[in-house]
Design goal:
It contains 19 helices and 26 strands. It is of the alpha+beta class and 626 residues long. It is globular.
Length: 626
């Protein structure tokens, strides 16, 4: 499937838990089906499948390039992660942390999406075609495509993706289910020609069928030891970088492939310029800032207002050694907020969910903590064009409404001011994983107490935070989700994924009407109908009240040492970060200038001041109101 883009660095820390896992239905049947299809699709039988004669092959070599011709190769980008990944696997137990994106973004799919035009562009396939049945896409592979171990990428690697993803041994029920129910088969015509067939006709077929390959030659036969055997395996990939070294708990290093097969292709040329990328584990954001000022880290996200307005009033910035940039994008917004676990007794009552929302003074946080730099998120699917319900308005802080809903359910204020009933107090734990968000939650705690709701703040490290959410052991999850080109509802709100661990339905939403709407949305082929269903689903989510939207940040703010250079404009319409080293869509646009590095080092040594630089780029600024 075509991959989504990253959000801002701040939200990514909380957001990047991608597709997780749902149920293990039909796995045995699927494995039998794969075994049967394998004989047909790998070209082994006497009669090979024949390619339809009326195919209209398409390609795209006309959309504008967005990398700079001035880019240079070389240098090392020193970046950071808050915690060491629990595995290098991208499926199975503990594989869903934020570091997973760094691995996946070095794996190309059949096709990609241009980050400005949103048109299909080539990746592993040079050409593609659509069948009239709206179920099938045909692809011609680039014969130059290679794995990082120099083995050729062939059509059989895509057939193997189905085998791999349907296997119970990868312990990934969501993928078992998806690749069984949603992808019918892969047909191999020859080494460089294949078709991917959807289980049913779908709109936006290219967003579903541009799947990634899986290297059959690398994996031994899948068995019950898969999870342990491949926990720290560095699997061959097709992208520009590969993990070259790591030390558990300390760092992970990537190295650029100097002879990368795609380096001169239209949409990859002048990109992925640094030789090495090092992710150091720095568990504290304040410590990370000190590392940045000492040049141990090259780029630092200053989206948080206190960094943009206050912390950057420091010598390295004021002397011009470090530059600041504020880049506005126009893209889908992360669903950042408070996710209420309806599996907990207190949130089974809709009145209490509504009361909780009205007790959260998000506006006060934006004004007091975030300096009005952030914007209120009205619901979880803003920025999706006609798929967005523009009439929904998030519940605002309102003491009268809190009182109305609580009394309607028979609750009364206790002697300490907190609502109580039958010996229970309206006291819930809010779990989060990012220390810099503590001031926001402290304000919500103070304001919530005025409304009679007690928040118990529980900060864990990122890995433990994700684990708790996925196991549905939280009361309130403080987090955001990554985005895609179209809204995704089944993973988060369908009953198939409720009341079971390791799924994205962390609110345990289990509503028959919601299920019908989501099923209809998934089945519909008519874009207008899908848009209408999307609007209804969002209204239903708002009515259920399981999600309290907080903030959206439709821009990127970063500080970077001046020897790092950016193209003009410095990013794309969908850029969630200007110094993302990986990602076929908008990653790898920056480059290193050795001469300026030497000039800067000399200026620091001589205590010479350079002109301070702050860039504000509104090329892609979206229309919005605070």
């Amino acid at each position: 499937m075509v991959k989504g883009r990253k959000r801002t660095m701040i939200l990514t820390f909380m957001a990047v838990i991608l597709m997780l896992i749902g149920c293990e239905k039909d796995v045995k049947a699927a494995e039998k089906a794969v075994s049967k299809e394998k004989v047909v699709e790998t070209g082994k039988p006497a009669a090979k499948p024949e390619l339809p004669k009326d195919i209209e092959w398409l390609t795209n070599d006309a959309d504008p390039v967005y990398a700079s011709p001035d880019a240079k190769k070389g240098g090392t980008m020193n970046s950071s992660i808050l915690s060491f990944p629990m595995t290098f696997r991208v499926v199975g137990p503990d594989s869903n942390g934020s570091f997973r994106s760094a691995i996946l973004e070095n794996q190309l799919g059949l096709i990609g999406i241009h980050p400005n035009t949103e048109n299909i562009i080539p990746e592993l396939a040079t050409h593609w075609a659509f069948d009239k049945n709206k179920k099938t896409m045909y692809f011609r592979l680039n014969p130059k495509a290679r794995w990082s171990d120099d083995k050729p990428v062939t059509a059989d690697d895509f057939a193997y993706t189905l085998e791999f993803m349907r296997s119970k041994h990868i312990v990934a029920p969501w993928y078992n289910d998806y690749y069984t129910k949603e992808i019918e088969k892969v047909i191999v015509y020859d080494d460089h020609t294949l078709a991917v067939v959807s289980a049913k006709p779908v709109p936006d077929l290219h967003l579903k069928l541009g799947i990634n390959p899986t290297p059959r030659h690398y994996y031994s036969e899948l068995d019950k030891d898969f999870v342990k055997k491949y926990n720290w395996a560095i699997v061959p990939n097709t992208g520009p970088y590969q993990i070259s070294d790591f030390k558990k708990g300390k760092y992970v290093k990537f190295k650029r492939k100097k002879d990368w097969w795609a380096k001169d292709l239209r949409y990859f040329k002048n990109r992925f310029n640094v030789d090495k990328v090092t992710f150091k584990v720095v568990r504290d954001y304040n410590v990370l800032w000190e590392y940045f000022k000492k040049t141990e880290i090259d780029v630092f996200s200053i989206t948080i207002p206190k960094y943009w307005h206050e912390k950057t009033k420091t010598q390295v910035v004021e002397n011009g050694y470090v530059h600041k940039i504020w880049f506005f994008n126009d893209t889908q917004q992360s669903a950042m907020g408070m996710w209420l676990n309806q599996g907990k007794e207190i949130f089974k009552d809709k009145n209490l969910r509504y009361a909780f929302a009205h007790a959260m003074n998000i506006g006060r946080v934006i004004e007091k903590v975030l300096r009005s730099d952030y914007f209120r998120l009205e619901h979880g699917f803003m920025g999706y064009g006609n798929y967005t319900n523009s009439t929904i308005r998030a519940r605002r802080f309102d003491l009268e409404k809190v009182s109305h809903y609580m009394k309607a359910s028979g609750w009364n204020r206790g002697p300490d001011g907190i609502w109580a009933k039958d010996g229970k107090r309206f006291s819930v734990e809010v779990t989060y994983g990012f220390e810099e968000h503590t001031p926001r939650l402290v304000v919500l705690k103070e304001e919530g107490k005025k409304a009679g709701v007690e928040l118990l703040l529980r900060k864990l490290d990122m890995a433990a935070t994700f684990k708790k959410f996925l196991e549905k052991k939280h009361d309130v999850a403080w987090m955001g989700w990554s985005t895609s080109l179209r809204p995704q509802y089944w993973e988060h709100f369908h009953s198939d994924n409720a009341h079971k661990p390791q799924t994205n339905n962390i609110t345990n939403t289990d509503d028959p009407e919601m299920d019908k709407l989501i099923d209809a949305y998934r089945d519909s082929l008519d874009e207008k109908e899908r848009e209408e269903l999307s609007v209804k689903i969002q209204a239903k989510i708002h009515e259920i009240g399981c999600f309290v939207p907080t903030f959206m940040v439709p821009y990127v703010r970063q500080a970077y040492w001046r020897w790092w250079k950016l193209p003009s404009p410095p990013g794309t319409k969908h850029s969630g970060g200007l110094f993302d080293p990986f990602g076929s869509g908008a990653g790898g646009l920056f480059w290193y200038d050795r001469a300026i590095r030497e000039e800067t080092k000399q200026a620091v040594k001589d205590k010479k001041k350079l002109p301070p630089v702050t860039i504000i780029d509104e090329t892609y600024k979206m229309k919005m109101e605070n």
